[in-house]
């Protein structure tokens, strides 16, 4: 079976590269440095199994990104934060149904969460078929 595709969005080259290394054994990683770049890939046909985005992006945060994604793709989004996310932002992410993973201390949770997103997507596709 082909490795699931994960669209990874982060404006920091070093973090993007590190995430590719961490995830490449289980996933085919498609990197994007901005939300605009990621949305452009989706617009031309990229259909990732899961989407991993930094909570804070240049010009758009993860909540705004989720709103811009096609509706059927919104549940695939996982948010990654390098700083503590609390208060209204954390509440909004939670109420939007997006898992929030803090790096580096919670990186061990990342793969199981992404695999759960992949499994849910495949289950939905099977039901639709």
Give your account of this protein's structure.
The protein is built from five helices and seven strands, in the order βαβαβββαβαβα. With 129 residues, the chain is an alpha/beta fold. It has a single domain, classed as Rossmann fold, CATH 3.40.50.2300. Strands 2-1-3-6-7 form a five-stranded parallel beta sheet, sandwiched between helices. The protein is globular and about 40 Å long. It starts with a strand and ends with a helix. The mean pLDDT is 93.
Structural class: alpha/beta
Strand order of the largest sheet: 2-1-3-6-7
Average of per-residue pLDDT values:
93
Helix content estimate:
40-55%
Sheet with most strands:
5 strands, parallel
Helical segment count = 5
Number of domains: 1
Strand content: 15-25%
Can you tell me the overall shape?
A: globular
Could you tell me the CATH topology label: Rossmann fold
List the main descriptive attributes of the protein structure presented here.
five-stranded parallel beta sheet; 5 helices; 129 residues; Rossmann fold; 7 strands; 45% helix; two-stranded antiparallel sheet; alpha/beta
